[in-house]
Design brief:
The protein is α/β, with parallel strands linked by helices. The protein has eleven helices and eleven strands. The protein has a six-stranded mixed β-sheet with strand order 7-6-8-5-9-11. Strands 2-1-3-10-4 form a five-stranded mixed β-sheet, with helices on both faces. The N and C termini lie far apart (56 Å).
């Protein structure tokens, strides 16, 4: 009936709507705002409509293994798309490492906690609850736990930790006052929706394993050609610059020297 109606419209000289494709993307929650921005730009450039479902990378990995019908998977851990490619569940040669994420200690703007002290600020008795993403399936949660252990704080604060299912829910816990502080993705702290709501401290990348992130086209996609075009769009100078704006950097090649420094170098910086 849709095509019959379209034919009648053409015969009558009535402008017909464009039947555009829609790409459905399973994306790590740290991309909640960045992909919304990128999707809008892609659609305005003449590309397909972008529909993003945010969640934890580990949960999406399991869903895709069980046949979830996504076109693309944007993971906060490059290992998940690599494993899908090896298992024949992704299109060979489409894996694209789009950035390396960072974690920050974040509190609301009205909080009296001084984030300039870095993670030791969590020892402040006013911090009753600390939010992190669940390390079992969220790469940012694993990074948070690793950083706390690196600073010798895990045993001291673990009883006060509340876990979000993903990094977006973790941010909501702090934003709504259900947690006094927490460790979130830098990309969320820099998003326009959150930029004036809180204070953050950039946790030293040397205190946790690199959060190298990647996207891949899935075998389940019914729009593989369009999905590949979207990945190419991500590589344009405009989008690379946009990813930097959201706090991502291009993944660096891992070296033995950097791995060694990861267990010895403390530090970080505070921002408002």
């Amino acid at each position: 009936m849709k095509w019959m109606a379209l034919g009648v419209m053409l015969l009558l000289g009535i402008a017909a709507p464009v039947l555009a494709e829609t790409l459905t993307i399973a994306a790590a929650s740290d991309l909640q705002f960045a992909l919304r921005d990128i999707g809008d730009r892609y659609e305005k450039s003449g590309g397909a409509r972008i529909s993003v479902v945010n969640g934890s990378s580990g949960n999406f990995f399991s869903q895709i293994q069980n046949g979830a019908p996504f076109d693309l998977f944007f993971s906060a851990d490059v290992d998940y798309p690599r494993r899908l490619e090896t298992a024949g569940l992704a299109e060979p040669g489409t894996l694209y490492a789009y950035g390396r994420g960072k974690i920050v200690l974040w509190v609301r703007q009205d909080a009296a906690i001084d984030v300039a002290h870095g993670l030791p600020a969590l020892l402040d008795p006013r911090v009753k609850k600390i939010a992190i993403a669940n390390p079992a399936h969220a790469p940012y949660g694993r990074a948070a736990e690793t950083a706390l252990r690196h600073e010798g704080l895990w045993e001291k604060v673990s009883a006060r930790i509340v876990m979000g299912e993903n990094i977006s829910q973790t941010f909501q816990f702090i934003e709504t006052g259900n947690a006094d502080a927490g460790i979130i993705a830098l990309s969320l702290a820099l998003a326009p929706a959150a930029a004036n709501q809180g204070k953050y401290f950039v946790i030293s990348p040397a205190s946790y394993d690199p959060i190298d992130q990647a996207a891949i086209v899935l075998k389940s996609s019914a729009h593989k050609a369009e999905a590949r075009r979207f990945l190419e769009f991500l590589k344009t100078p405009e989008i690379l610059q946009l990813m930097k704006k959201y706090g991502f950097e291009l993944p660096a090649v891992e070296t033995p020297a950097r791995k060694a420094s990861a267990v010895t170098t403390p530090g970080g910086s505070a921002k408002k």
